[in-house]
Amino acid sequence: MYAALVTLTIDPAQAPAAAAALMNDILPKLTAAPGFVSGQWLEPVDGRGMSILTFENEERARAAAPLLGGSAPGVTIESVEFRRVALTAP
């Protein structure tokens, strides 16, 4: 498995619209992406957010990267790192 570690900034004034875009646009596309396994979106602190998305393999993770930014208003993707998942626990 591979993880995409995403860091982003969110304009606080546009946070409600960004959350709606995540739920209505970005999330359905990501969960339908080939090889998608799971995703965790961490609550933003001081306008900085993070997410951890897992995929079956590195190829699938990298192929889904363009979906990460989507069209969420006020959101800027700062970085996306790809890492092999060494261990998971329930």
Tell me about this structure.
The model has no long low-confidence stretch (mean pLDDT 93). This protein has helices spanning 15-32, 58-69, and strands at 2-10, 36-45, 48-55, 75-84. The chain has a 4-stranded antiparallel β-sheet, with helices on one face. It is 33% helix and 41% strand. The protein has 2 helices and 4 strands; from the N terminus they run βαββαβ. The protein has 90 residues and is α+β, with helices and mostly antiparallel strands.
Number of strands: 4
Q: Whole-Å distance between the termini?
A: 15 Å
Mean pLDDT rating:
93
Shape: globular
Strand content: 35-45%
Strands side by side in the biggest sheet:
2-3-1-4
**Helix share of residues?**
25-40%
- How does the helix and strand content classify structurally? alpha+beta
Low-confidence stretches: none
Topology:
Blueprint: E1 2-10, H1 15-32, E2 36-45, E3 48-55, H2 58-69, E4 75-84
Antiparallel strand pairs: 1-3, 1-4, 2-3
In short:
This protein has helices spanning about 15-30, 60-70, and strands at about 1-10, 35-45, 50-55, 75-85.
Which structural traits does this protein have?
about 90 residues; alpha+beta; four-stranded antiparallel sheet
